[in-house]
Amino acid sequence: MKILLDENISYSLSKELPWHECYSVAHMGWRGIGNGKLLALAQGEGFDVLISLDDDMRTEQDLVGMQISV
Fold first, then answer.
1. Which of the listed residues 55, 57, 58, 69 has the most CB atoms within 10 Å of its CB?
2. Is residue 9 helix, strand or coil?
3. For residues 58 and 63, what is the distance between their CA atoms, to the nearest angstrom?
């Protein structure tokens, strides 16, 4: 599983997910990008999951039809 860790998640979490490919938003060069565009970029790069502490993402973004889990 390919996982993207949002800016508000420490990359050290990746140590707890050893059987998955983990990348950070910073690693991808996507710091400061808004959630809508971030989700589109992540989906386009084949990420399966975005882990974030942003609890407003579900209400602010239309997740219907997205292939990425948040």
1. 57
2. coil
3. 7
**Strand order in 21-24's β-sheet?**
21-24, 2-5, 49-51
* Radius of gyration for the chain, computed over Cα atoms and rounded to the nearest angstrom: 11
Neighbours of 40 (CB within 10 A): 14
- The C-alpha atoms of residue 27 and residue 25 are separated, in whole angstroms, by 5
pTM for this structure?
Answer: 0.86
Burial readout 9-30 (b: 16 or more C-beta within 10 A, e: otherwise): beeeebeeeeeeebbbbeebeb
Alpha-carbon torsion angle 56, 60, 1, 33, nearest 10: -100
Do the Cβ atoms of 21 and 43 come closer than 8 Å?
Answer: no
